[in-house]
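User: Could you go from structure to sequence for me? I need the amino acid at each position, not a summary. C-alpha cells:
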C-alpha cells in the first residue's frame, strides 16, 4: 500500500484548505459540507491525518470545495477517515440518512427473501426496468484517493479470481477497461451496463487516478447480473432486468453478493455498517431503483420530488445523478441506507413506488 509519510497535514495542504474553506464559506453553496463544516470544526480537523494512510481533511472535502453545487461534498479517502474526521462526517451522515446520530448503530444485515416483494408493474405500463445494487470495499485496502496503481491491479486480480468461480445464473465474463475498444465501451455505457470516466465530482475527489488501470465489468450471460470493479467503490454488485419484478431482481443480487462474500473479506464498522467511499452509501449500501414513466406527476418536478420524499425516495434523471429526465423517464430509488436492514430498505422502496404509480393513475383519471 502507498502511504504518505507525515503525522499531520503539511503546510502546502493547510494553505489549500484555508483558501478552499474561505471560498466555500463565502459561497451560496447548498451542500451538506457547507452546512456542517463550521469554522471551529474546520480548525480542529485541518491538521489531522488518518493513522495508516495519512489522508487529510483536504482528501475528504476537495470535491465539495471544487464543486460548490455538490449536494453532499465529502468522501472518505480510506476507511479510517470516518473516525479521524468524525466531527464532520457524523453530522453529514445524520443529516443525509435522516436521523443517524452519534449514538445510533446500524443493525446487523438481514436480507430476507425477494419473493416477499411482488412485481410492481405486472402489466408493464410504467416501469421500464428495475435495478438493485450494493457496494463493497475490500478489507485492508484504502479507497480510491489512496490506491496506488499496483493496488488497483491487486484488487482487480483478487476480485476477478472470485468472479470466475460464479456459476449457474451468475456465471459470466470479465471485461477489463484496459484494452477495451472505444466502440464496445460506448455500447455498454449506452445500455446502462458500464460506468464511464469523467464524473467531475469523482475526479475532484481523486477517484479517477491511473484510469483505466484495474477497472472493468463482469457480465453474466443473460446480462442481468453485473459487477463493476474499482469504479467508485472496489465492488459494485448490480442485478437488473426489464419490467418491475423487484423481488426477483433483489434475490439475484443477494445470491451474487453472498457468493462473493465466501472468498472476499469486506470492510465494515460496528456502528456504520458496510464502509464505502461516499457516506451516502454506508450501512446497507443498498440502492433499489426503477426507470419509470410518470408523465402526469413528472409535469411538476417539484411536486414529484416532494411526494417521493414522503416515502424516502430519491428522484434522479434518466441516466442517474446530475442528469435530466429523457422522455419523462425518471430514475427513482430508496434514499435511506442506514439505520435499517437491507430487507427494510427494499421494502420501503417497494411501498413508495407503489404509491407513486397509484398517484400517477389518479392524475391520469382526472384528464
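Assistant: Here is the amino acid at each position, in order:
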Amino acid at each position: 500500500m502507498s502511504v504518505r509519510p507525515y503525522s499531520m497535514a503539511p503546510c502546502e495542504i493547510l494553505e489549500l484548505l484555508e483558501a478552499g474553506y474561505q471560498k466555500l464559506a463565502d459561497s451560496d453553496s447548498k451542500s451538506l459540507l457547507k452546512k456542517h463544516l463550521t469554522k471551529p470544526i474546520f480548525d480542529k480537523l485541518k491538521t489531522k491525518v488518518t493513522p495508516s494512510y495519512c489522508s487529510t481533511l483536504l482528501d475528504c472535502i476537495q470535491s465539495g470545495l471544487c464543486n460548490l453545487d455538490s449536494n453532499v461534498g465529502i468522501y472518505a479517502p480510506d476507511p479510517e477517515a470516518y473516525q479521524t474526521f468524525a466531527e464532520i462526517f457524523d453530522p453529514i451522515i445524520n443529516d443525509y440518512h435522516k436521523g443517524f446520530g452519534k449514538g445510533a448503530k446500524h443493525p446487523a444485515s438481514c436480507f430476507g427473501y425477494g419473493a416477499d416483494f411482488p412485481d410492481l408493474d405486472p402489466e408493464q405500463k410504467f416501469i421500464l426496468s428495475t435495478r438493485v445494487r450494493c457496494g463493497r470495499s475490500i478489507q485492508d485496502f484504502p479507497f480510491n484517493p489512496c490506491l496506488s496503481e499496483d493496488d488497483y491491479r491487486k484488487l482487480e486480480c483478487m476480485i476477478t479470481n472470485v468472479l470466475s468461480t460464479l456459476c449457474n445464473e451468475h456465471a459470466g465474463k470479465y471485461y477489463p477497461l484496459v484494452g477495451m475498444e472505444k466502440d464496445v465501451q460506448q455500447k455498454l455505457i449506452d445500455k446502462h451496463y458500464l460506468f464511464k470516466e469523467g464524473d467531475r465530482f469523482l475526479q475532484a475527489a481523486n477517484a479517477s487516478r491511473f484510469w483505466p488501470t484495474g477497472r472493468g465489468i463482469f457480465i453474466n450471460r443473460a446480462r442481468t447480473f453485473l459487477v463493476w470493479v474499482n469504479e467508485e467503490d472496489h465492488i459494485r454488485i448490480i442485478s437488473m432486468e426489464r419490467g418491475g419484478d423487484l423481488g426477483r431482481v433483489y434475490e439475484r443480487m443477494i445470491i451474487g453478493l453472498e457468493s462473493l462474500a465466501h472468498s472476499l473479506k469486506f470492510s465494515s464498522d460496528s456502528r456504520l455498517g458496510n464502509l464505502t467511499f461516499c457516506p451516502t452509501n454506508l450501512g446497507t449500501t443498498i440502492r433499489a431503483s426503477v426507470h419509470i414513466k410518470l408523465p402526469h406527476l413528472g409535469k411538476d418536478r417539484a411536486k414529484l420530488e416532494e411526494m417521493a420524499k414522503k416515502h424516502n425516495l430519491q428522484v434522479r434523471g434518466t441516466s442517474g445523478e446530475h442528469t435530466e429526465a429523457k422522455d419523462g423517464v425518471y430514475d427513482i430509488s430508496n434514499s435511506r441506507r442506514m439505520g435499517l436492514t437491507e430487507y427494510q430498505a427494499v421494502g420501503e422502496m417497494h411501498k413508495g413506488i407503489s404509491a407513486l404509480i397509484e398517484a400517477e393513475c389518479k392524475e391520469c383519471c382526472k384528464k
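One structural detail worth keeping in mind: The chain has a mean pLDDT of 93.
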